[in-house]
Structures are given as structure tokens and as C-alpha cells.
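Task 17 of the worksheet. Students: predict the tertiary structure of the chain below and write it out as C-alpha cells. Keep your answer in the requested format; marks are given for formatting as well as content.
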Amino acid sequence: MRGGERKKVKKWRGHYFVYVRSANDREVRKYRIITPGLKSELRKWEAQNKLKQIIDRETGGPVATPDSEVTLRWFWENRFLPLQAHWRESTREGLCS
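Model answer:
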């Protein structure tokens, strides 16, 4: 090393969001960054597994479960189409016919 230069230590970094309730009972999204470990000590898949464990612990585990009552037709008519207000009438007619 020359003149006080240091070699940079490479670390794995993980990013995720957590939703917390604020004082006025609104959900607020918080950004989190963690360092699962050094790249010299963990393989990529090990760092990913460690990040997944941390996320599961902080969020209480996987929460999204499929609803067997929701069909593609229901999703299309009740969730997707209402969000497409910016479509021209010709586009809407072509896709919905």
C-alpha cells in the first residue's frame, strides 16, 4: 500500500421496506439497509438467505397468501381496469371486446 491507502472491505448489502403504524394510525413505509456479512466470508446465496431470515423476523414472516375466490375475470374487472383511466376509448374497446 502506498501513502496510507487502504483496501476497501467488500460487504454484502441488503435493502427492504417495512411498513409501520405512525402516531396518527397511518401506515408509513420505512427503508432499511442491512449488511449480512463480508463478501469474503459469505457466498451470495448465503447472504440472500440471511437477508430473508432478517426480513421474515422483522415482518413476522410471509403474509401474502393467494385468495381462491379471486379469479382472473374478477381481478380484470375490479382491480386492473379501474386503474387504466388514462387509456383512450379505442384501446379500452379493443382490449375489452
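Marker's comment: The mean pLDDT is 85. The first strand starts at residue 11 and ends at 21.
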